[in-house]
């Protein structure tokens, strides 16, 4: 009897310990990044770090604006492409498609979600980069090497489809069938029911799915880095090369020890990313939580 | 069972002396694994309350959903037979299904207000019908909210979300919403099952008044409710119509053992 | 009027159907184009040998180091994540069930943690390494990836546990079980098939991640022998070889991509089959 109780005590301690470690993890991450980047933000004004365009680590110039802007460009363009696709696919699969189609799509979405980032990158190099260089850019009378914001955005949009689509499917699944029946019985067509009732009912959920998709895409590293060109500049069009924040951190890891405060700068880049993404996540998760509670 | 069939035939003659509004003949509904409705033949009389009575799972709700083709939503269901309204078989109609549905207002087990304001809930069906004149819409909204005795309770907050109403109010709103498309028939699927006794009573009173202008087809498993409201009763059991006819006849003089048993244990 | 309504409906119906088919086609195209490009470079030698001299200049050898490194890393991380995740998932479903607010808070927190990008985990892992004065190693990679996949594993297990009726828990207590016994004997058994899916999901995520191991696991041409050795991984092997200008090396990157895709596909399909069985 005492042995059973002893085991019970021991295992509950272990459970609490694991949970505490996990709860402290983001705090530790945030704190670690703040401390490690302190060399940078103690010696440079925060405003100039974020908004300055001058990036020459060897001269101790650290302006993150080109990276921040590249990150925003590539993520926003990716979302513009994937948002309508996800919404339409979700509408088709939940409203119009025969059930076998949904059964086919489930594994397709799973597999798309499971394909590693680097494989998307390989596909991007093989297919998307030449596509942009040889077909899309000339269509707009532009010259491009292909390694560009647009290439990054295209790859990123495909990567974000399973993530966003899954969430929107869940949103539609939660709309009660009877609500649709009510609208149909009032003489609406199926499409009118979707447009006036389902989209309205699911609006917060769909917007949250987009928000979370945005934050996911913002943190994506390897695949984007492989196709975006990695040139430090403020991109003027989607055919220009860019250099997003995660790529900055990942690419320069090798040489960061050789230049003073460079490692702080990279940690500062990670910190920016961490703060932005955590904030977006908290906001949209909270919205979802609120809408589910009602 | 033989006696049931004989008396059923006798009673059909009885019903047809009324003005019929809907004719269902040889209706069968199958799902992948089951025969849900078996050879349904009934005529629904106009401006009366017809109650579909029976234990849960006997196919009442499916029968109701056949009447406005909501069965279309369930790809696994297969229907054959005919349902005629105004001389037109709605089961074979392909193009004018939205108009047919507008001939029938639907009230469900639980209220499902559309995710919009009280006002827009009523205006929704009108707009779908092509009514664009704002004054006409406003007029109708008021008229139908009065019809269900909701106007005085909500007239000051027509623009607020319909989901904030109490559940009894929501159910009356859903009734008004159905009336706004000016149907000939009201289909009600256990409309009081989610409501408290007082709200239930309000709905029942509305129904008694509304039958002057509309034909009401109501599904219920509550015997006392059927006794209070029904002009005609259709008693169903395992997908079949066991008895149907005048409410008084059915309740005072049940023919089959199944109905007798149901009336003995029912409430 | 009615014609317009009909037309609008048909338009969107077909548009949305086309989009759905497009998504399937893109998936097929990804798999196809990688296989088409890499199949020729895929050979027994590539799969079973470590890189030889001049490998990155087009010399002989294979990606055995990366395949084994990735498997070591992903298996290690999955085991470690499981040791952390199982107690947490059981804890929140058994001990915290009476504090719904805390429970919601923790789920919320885990969902947010899930959103943290792997590059940030990588950077953090790197900070810890420097702090402890260690160098890149298999062990460090395992710890970082475990931290990365734990939130996924816990939430997936949590979803399974949530479906277990409360009555089962009450029945176990009424028979005199302690909470631990209830957790491990009743809940664990009931949820086992779902757990397998959760573990596979996390494993798939772990083996495919590059950004977190870039800083922590390092890279080497040899198969790691102890936890303190650096370890090569498939994603990084693909990444490094693809950035080479030499075609032969690039082709090997495509071959490595086939291997990685194949592993992930098998995991994904197995997870789905297990899930369906349940």
Automatic annotation (TrEMBL), chain B:
<dbReference type="InterPro" id="IPR027417">
    <property type="entry name" value="P-loop_NTPase"/>
</dbReference>
<dbReference type="InterPro" id="IPR003439">
    <property type="entry name" value="ABC_transporter-like_ATP-bd"/>
</dbReference>
<keyword id="KW-0547">Nucleotide-binding</keyword>
<keyword id="KW-0067">ATP-binding</keyword>
<keyword id="KW-0592">Phosphate transport</keyword>
<dbReference type="GO" id="GO:0005315">
    <property type="term" value="F:phosphate transmembrane transporter activity"/>
</dbReference>
<dbReference type="GO" id="GO:0005524">
    <property type="term" value="F:ATP binding"/>
</dbReference>
<protein>
    <submittedName>
        <fullName>Phosphate ABC transporter ATP-binding protein</fullName>
    </submittedName>
</protein>
<keyword id="KW-0813">Transport</keyword>
<dbReference type="Pfam" id="PF00005">
    <property type="entry name" value="ABC_tran"/>
</dbReference>
<dbReference type="GO" id="GO:0016020">
    <property type="term" value="C:membrane"/>
</dbReference>
<dbReference type="InterPro" id="IPR005670">
    <property type="entry name" value="PstB-like"/>
</dbReference>
<dbReference type="GO" id="GO:0016887">
    <property type="term" value="F:ATP hydrolysis activity"/>
</dbReference>
<dbReference type="GO" id="GO:0035435">
    <property type="term" value="P:phosphate ion transmembrane transport"/>
</dbReference>
<dbReference type="InterPro" id="IPR003593">
    <property type="entry name" value="AAA+_ATPase"/>
</dbReference>
<feature type="domain" description="ABC transporter">
    <location>
        <begin position="22"/>
        <end position="263"/>
    </location>
</feature>
From TrEMBL, chain C:
<keyword id="KW-1003">Cell membrane</keyword>
<feature type="domain" description="ABC transmembrane type-1">
    <location>
        <begin position="67"/>
        <end position="271"/>
    </location>
</feature>
<keyword id="KW-1133">Transmembrane helix</keyword>
<dbReference type="InterPro" id="IPR000515">
    <property type="entry name" value="MetI-like"/>
</dbReference>
<keyword id="KW-0813">Transport</keyword>
<dbReference type="GO" id="GO:0035435">
    <property type="term" value="P:phosphate ion transmembrane transport"/>
</dbReference>
<feature type="transmembrane region" description="Helical">
    <location>
        <begin position="108"/>
        <end position="132"/>
    </location>
</feature>
<dbReference type="InterPro" id="IPR005672">
    <property type="entry name" value="Phosphate_PstA"/>
</dbReference>
<feature type="transmembrane region" description="Helical">
    <location>
        <begin position="138"/>
        <end position="157"/>
    </location>
</feature>
<keyword id="KW-0592">Phosphate transport</keyword>
<dbReference type="InterPro" id="IPR035906">
    <property type="entry name" value="MetI-like_sf"/>
</dbReference>
<feature type="transmembrane region" description="Helical">
    <location>
        <begin position="12"/>
        <end position="35"/>
    </location>
</feature>
<feature type="transmembrane region" description="Helical">
    <location>
        <begin position="71"/>
        <end position="96"/>
    </location>
</feature>
<dbReference type="GO" id="GO:0005886">
    <property type="term" value="C:plasma membrane"/>
</dbReference>
<comment type="similarity">
    <text>Belongs to the binding-protein-dependent transport system permease family. CysTW subfamily.</text>
</comment>
<feature type="transmembrane region" description="Helical">
    <location>
        <begin position="253"/>
        <end position="275"/>
    </location>
</feature>
<feature type="transmembrane region" description="Helical">
    <location>
        <begin position="195"/>
        <end position="219"/>
    </location>
</feature>
<dbReference type="InterPro" id="IPR051408">
    <property type="entry name" value="Phosphate_transprt_permease"/>
</dbReference>
<dbReference type="GO" id="GO:0005315">
    <property type="term" value="F:phosphate transmembrane transporter activity"/>
</dbReference>
<keyword id="KW-0472">Membrane</keyword>
<protein>
    <recommendedName>
        <fullName>Phosphate transport system permease protein PstA</fullName>
    </recommendedName>
</protein>
<dbReference type="Pfam" id="PF00528">
    <property type="entry name" value="BPD_transp_1"/>
</dbReference>
């Amino acid at each position: 009897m005492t042995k059973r109780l002893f085991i019970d005590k021991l295992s509950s301690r272990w459970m609490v310990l694991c949970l505490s470690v996990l709860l402290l993890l983001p705090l530790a991450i945030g704190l670690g990044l703040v401390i490690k980047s302190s060399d940078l933000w103690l010696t440079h004004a925060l405003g100039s770090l974020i908004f300055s365009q001058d990036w020459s680590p060897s001269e101790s110039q650290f302006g993150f604006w080109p990276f921040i802007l590249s990150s925003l460009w590539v993520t926003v363009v990716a979302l513009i492409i994937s948002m309508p696709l996800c919404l339409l696919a979700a509408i088709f699969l939940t409203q119009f498609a025969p059930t076998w189609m949904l059964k086919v799509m489930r594994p397709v979405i799973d597999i798309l979600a499971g394909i590693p980032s680097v494989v998307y990158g390989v596909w991007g190099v093989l297919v998307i980069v030449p596509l942009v260089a040889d077909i899309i850019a000339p269509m707009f009378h532009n010259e491009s090497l292909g390694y560009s914001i647009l290439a990054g955005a295209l790859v990123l949009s495909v990567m974000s489809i399973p993530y966003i689509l899954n969430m929107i499917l869940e949103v539609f699944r939660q709309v009660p069938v009877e609500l649709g029946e009510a609208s149909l019985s009032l003489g609406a067509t199926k499409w009118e029911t979707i447009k006036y009732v389902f989209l309205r009912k699911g609006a917060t959920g769909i917007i949250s799915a987009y928000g979370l998709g945005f934050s996911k895409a913002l943190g994506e590293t390897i695949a984007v880095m492989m196709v975006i060109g990695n040139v430090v500049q403020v991109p003027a069009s989607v055919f220009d090369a860019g250099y997003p924040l995660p790529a900055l951190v990942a690419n320069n890891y090798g040489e960061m020890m050789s230049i003073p405060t460079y490692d702080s700068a990279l940690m500062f880049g990670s910190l920016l990313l961490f703060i932005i993404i955590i904030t977006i996540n908290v906001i949209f998760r909270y919205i979802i939580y609120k809408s589910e509670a009602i | 069972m033989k006696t049931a069939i004989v008396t059923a035939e006798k009673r059909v003659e009885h019903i047809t002396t009324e003005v019929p509004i809907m004719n269902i003949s040889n209706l069968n509904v199958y799902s992948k694994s089951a025969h849900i409705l078996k050879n349904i033949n009934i005529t629904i009389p106009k401006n009366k309350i017809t109650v579909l009575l029976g234990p849960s799972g006997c196919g009442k709700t499916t029968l109701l959903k056949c009447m406005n083709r909501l069965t279309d939503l369930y790809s696994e269901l297969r229907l054959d037979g005919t349902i005629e309204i105004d001389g037109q078989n709605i089961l074979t109609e392909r193009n004018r299904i939205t108009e047919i549905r507008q001939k029938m207002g639907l009230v469900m087990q639980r209220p499902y207000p559309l995710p919009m304001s009280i006002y827009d809930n009523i205006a929704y069906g009108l707009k779908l019908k092509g009514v664009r004149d704002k004054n006409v819409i406003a007029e109708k909204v008021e008229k139908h909210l009065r019809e269900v005795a909701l106007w005085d309770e909500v007239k000051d907050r027509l623009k607020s979300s319909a989901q904030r109403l109490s559940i009894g109010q929501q159910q009356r709103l859903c009734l008004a919403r159905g009336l706004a498309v000016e149907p000939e028939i009201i289909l009600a699927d256990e409309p009081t099952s989610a409501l408290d006794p007082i709200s239930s009573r309000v709905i029942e009173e509305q129904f008694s008044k509304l039958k002057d202008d509309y034909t009401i087809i109501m599904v219920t498993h509550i015997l006392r409710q059927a006794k209070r409201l029904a002009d005609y009763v259709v008693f169903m059991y395992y997908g079949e119509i066991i008895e149907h006819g005048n409410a008084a006849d059915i309740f005072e003089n049940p023919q089959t053992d199944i109905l007798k048993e149901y009336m003995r244990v029912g409430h | 009027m009615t014609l317009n309504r009909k037309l609008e409906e048909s338009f969107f119906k077909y548009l949305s159907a086309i989009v759905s088919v497009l998504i399937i086609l893109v998936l097929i195209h990804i798999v196809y184009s990688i296989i088409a490009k890499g199949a020729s470079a895929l050979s027994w030698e590539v799969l079973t040998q470590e890189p030889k001299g001049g490998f990155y200049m087009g010399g002989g050898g294979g990606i055995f180091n990366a395949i084994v490194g990735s498997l070591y890393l992903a298996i290690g991380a999955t085991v470690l994540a499981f040791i952390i995740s199982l107690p947490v998932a059981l804890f929140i479903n058994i001990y915290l069930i009476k504090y719904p607010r805390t429970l919601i808070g923790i789920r919320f927190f885990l969902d947010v943690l899930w959103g943290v990008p792997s590059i940030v985990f990588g950077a953090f892992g790197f900070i810890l390494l420097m702090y402890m004065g260690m160098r890149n190693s298999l062990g460090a990679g395992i710890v970082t990836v475990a931290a990365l996949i734990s939130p996924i594993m816990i939430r997936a297990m949590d979803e399974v546990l949530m479906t277990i009726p409360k009555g089962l828990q009450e029945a176990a207590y009424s028979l005199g079980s302690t909470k631990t016994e209830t957790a491990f004997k009743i809940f664990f058994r009931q949820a086992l098939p779902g757990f397998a899916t959760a573990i596979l999901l996390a494993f798939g995520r772990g083996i495919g991640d590059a950004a977190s191991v870039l800083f922590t696991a390092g890279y080497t041409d040899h198969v790691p022998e102890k936890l303190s050795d650096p370890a090569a991984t498939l994603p990084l092997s693909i990444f490094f070889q693809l950035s080479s200008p030499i075609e032969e090396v690039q082709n090997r990157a495509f071959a490595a991509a086939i291997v990685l895709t194949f592993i992930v596909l098998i995991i994904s399909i197995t997870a789905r089959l297990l899930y369906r069985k349940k």
